């Protein structure tokens, strides 16, 4: 008998129907002659919080993390299933965090038979049967579980010890997770940059030919320097210029990832990122969309038929080597919306569908025109995309032209890269995290530690540490107090570094013990910088995740 484990009842029901397990032998457990599908919720095994283990000790780093079963009745129902299983299969769309939970379940039931993994990126019957046929096994799944176990261990160590440190210095509300600390530091650093007078500047804008506006490439910190350049521009002068038309196949619009969906839903629907993640997960579990746990903005060739069934020919889309796979691709709709969906679900579904339509209806190439001229050493330019008739009749190339200066003036402007708009900040942090992770070539399947900073921002808002002022995100007074303890100490860089070290477990380049030992040393240093009265030196021990 093959035992398939899912983490919620809705997924279990869908997988059971797809696999022909039609007999419900207990709530959440379905069977056929050859396999059984059972629900084992995330909360089935509870990791004992450090506050319960520490007994007021601080700093506290345990030799082992403890776990306890929270659902005894379910445990009794599951025992014979695990005992009789010839293979145990984990069916999930989660990454390292989910694989760690499966690892703990198998260890709890002393599973000795082979184990494997079904990647449920889509909850359609055909996709589920395909995932079962191509289920994965091997050492890399074990290393993926170790990545999740180490990440969870670092979470528990950080939250308890940093929480205690802030409490000791009079900040009882500052119980941060690792990801919240990274995000809060990032928000605070941007706020400091915006408040700095050195980060503002001045540019020159010129009206030419009576209707077009060109801007200087240079941004001057000193307004007087910009005004000196302005004096060299004579109104009415005709100046030689060049117009360059370029063509590219790089798409402006891509399919939704979790991050872009959160940004789009916030800007258009007013959804908090955490709400978007929850609604998207419900749509996924009901089979309306593919897994929202995605950071890839493309689709694999194998899904071309599905997309063309909905939108027709998609020859212009780059179906080739775009790094998308069946286990890792953009968010798409899978079937039509139906009656019974909530208002939020309908709104988010339409947002995803409309993005898909916009992507496939793009021109296969894009054309951009740039007009540019120089006055002395200063370059002025304007760039725009050619659309409609202009797209059809304009050929790529470089052409000589002239421009007539109408009027010009100096304008204050912000230096590039200093936006505090909520979605821009969320994007800049996520992009930085994903870029560094990609540079370290870990390619770990989705894990909340690196991909869902949108929900982290929502958590900071609910804790009263940051707020939204207009469209911009800012620290509250309480958040500023916490940031003052983080600023200049590069906690964010250290925490991200250790997450990436944990991710290297997936490649087999690290051991869990070495990562945890190193993180404990770093954590001790962080605690001592926050709470200067701490003098106890922690000797890091071999940290395991055994029961």
Descriptive report:
By secondary structure, this protein is of the alpha+beta class. It is 44% helix and 19% strand. The strands form 4 sheets. The chain has a 6-stranded mixed β-sheet, sandwiched between helices. A hairpin with a 2-residue loop joins strand 2 and strand 3. The model is unreliable at 194-198 and 537-547 (pLDDT under 50).
Short description:
Helix content is 44%, strand content 19%. The chain is an alpha+beta fold and 547 residues long.
Strand content: 15-25%
Please compute the radius of gyration using only Cα atoms.
28 Å
Please state the overall shape, judged from the principal axes of the Cα atoms.
globular
Number of strands: 16
Distance between the termini: 28 Å
What's the total helix number?
19
Structural class: alpha+beta
Query: Strands of the largest sheet, in order across it?
Result: 2-3-4-1-7-8
Mean pLDDT: 88
């Amino acid at each position: 008998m093959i035992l398939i484990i899912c983490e919620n009842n809705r997924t279990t029901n869908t997988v059971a129907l797809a696999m022909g397990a039609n007999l419900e032998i207990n709530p959440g457990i379905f069977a056929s002659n050859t396999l059984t599908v059972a629900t084992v919720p995330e909360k089935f095994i509870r990791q004992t919080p450090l506050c319960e283990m520490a007994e007021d000790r601080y700093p506290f780093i345990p030799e082992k993390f403890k776990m306890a079963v929270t659902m005894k009745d379910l445990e009794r129902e599951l025992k014979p299933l695990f005992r009789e299983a010839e293979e145990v299969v984990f069916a999930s769309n989660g990454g390292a965090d989910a694989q760690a939970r499966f690892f703990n379940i198998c260890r709890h039931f002393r599973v000795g038979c082979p184990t494997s993994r079904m990647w449920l990126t889509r909850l359609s019957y055909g996709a589920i049967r395909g995932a079962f046929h191509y289920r994965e096994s091997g050492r890399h799944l074990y290393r993926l579980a170790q990545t999740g176990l180490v990440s969870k261990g670092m979470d528990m160590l950080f939250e308890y010890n940093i929480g205690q440190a802030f409490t000791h210095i009079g900040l009882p509300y500052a119980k941060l997770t690792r990801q919240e600390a990274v995000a809060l530091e990032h928000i605070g650093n941007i706020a400091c940059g915006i408040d700095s007078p050195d980060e503002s500047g001045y540019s020159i804008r010129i009206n030419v030919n009576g209707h077009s506006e060109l801007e200087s490439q240079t941004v001057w910190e000193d307004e007087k320097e910009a005004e000196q350049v302005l004096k060299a521009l004579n109104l009415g002068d005709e100046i030689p210029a060049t117009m360059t038309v370029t063509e590219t196949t790089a798409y402006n619009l891509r399919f939704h990832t979790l991050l872009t969906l959160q940004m789009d839903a916030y800007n258009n629907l007013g959804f908090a990122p955490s709400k978007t993640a929850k609604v998207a997960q419900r749509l996924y579990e009901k089979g309306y969309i593919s897994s929202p746990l995605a950071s890839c903005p493309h689709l694999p060739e194998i899904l071309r038929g599905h997309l063309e069934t909905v939108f027709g020919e998609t020859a212009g889309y780059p179906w080739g080597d775009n790094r998308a796979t069946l286990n890792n691709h953009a968010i798409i709709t899978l079937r039509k919306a139906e009656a019974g969906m909530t208002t939020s679900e309908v709104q988010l579904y339409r947002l995803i569908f409309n993005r898909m339509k916009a992507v496939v209806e793009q021109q296969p190439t894009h054309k951009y025109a740039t007009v540019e001229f120089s006055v002395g050493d200063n370059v002025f330019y304007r760039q725009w995309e050619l659309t409609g008739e202009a797209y059809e009749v304009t050929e790529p190339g470089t052409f000589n032209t002239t421009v007539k200066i109408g009027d010009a003036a100096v304008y204050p402007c912000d230096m590039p890269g200093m936006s505090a708009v909520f979605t821009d900040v969320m994007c800049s942090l996520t992009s930085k995290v994903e870029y560094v992770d990609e540079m370290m070539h870990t390619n770990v399947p989705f894990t909340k530690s690196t991909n869902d900073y949108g929900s982290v921002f929502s958590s900071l808002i609910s804790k009263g540490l940051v707020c939204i002022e207009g469209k911009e995100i800012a620290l509250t007074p309480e958040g500023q107090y916490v940031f003052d303890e983080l600023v200049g100490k590069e906690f964010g860089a250290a925490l991200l570094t250790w997450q990436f070290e944990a991710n290297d477990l997936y490649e087999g380049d690290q051991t869990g013990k070495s990562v945890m030992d190193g993180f404990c040393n770093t954590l001790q240093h962080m605690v001592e910088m926050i709470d200067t009265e701490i003098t106890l030196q922690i000797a890091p021990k071999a940290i395991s995740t055994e029961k």
